[in-house]
Amino acid sequence: MKLLGISGTIVGSKTGIAVQSVLDAAKQFYPEIETEYLDMKDYQVQFCDGRDPSAYTGDTKTVIDIVSSADCYIIGTPIFQSSITGVLKNLFDLVPTAALYNKVMGFVATGGTYQHYLVVENQLKPIAGYLRAFVAPSYVYLHDDHFNAERQIADPDVRDRLERLAREVVFMNQKLKG
Question: Which residues belong to any copy of the NADPH-dependent FMN reductase-like domain (predicted)?
């Protein structure tokens, strides 16, 4: 089983830190699984222009292939202007819907206000529904206050929720895939 963590932004570090902490927890609880971290900062991805996903080349093709080959996901995004990033939306547009069908997704979001946690409910979960993916019951929203000056997750409750998310995604994937 391959669990892919995606940091769906090209700026900042908090989202990536949160996604990586879920991957670390999953590896701790389930050492037999493979984890991979996809940081969108590391790739020059083209904008989706409607062509068949197999027609893309370079970094765009690489990212499509990485996402398509995973069995389940931890998807992270910062919240900008009460929405997911354009980078993440573009990724969802690029990857063939069939590649995400019946796969388990868990969500992590970061933001500067406490109200933006609703973006997971109002945007990410409906996208997953359209893709016919399964969504873990928990998700984790991290506010700037949950990080210390060294950009480490300082809030023990948030760390516990990230661990719970890791367990849920792997458990769901194992049960659904037999």
Answer: 1-144
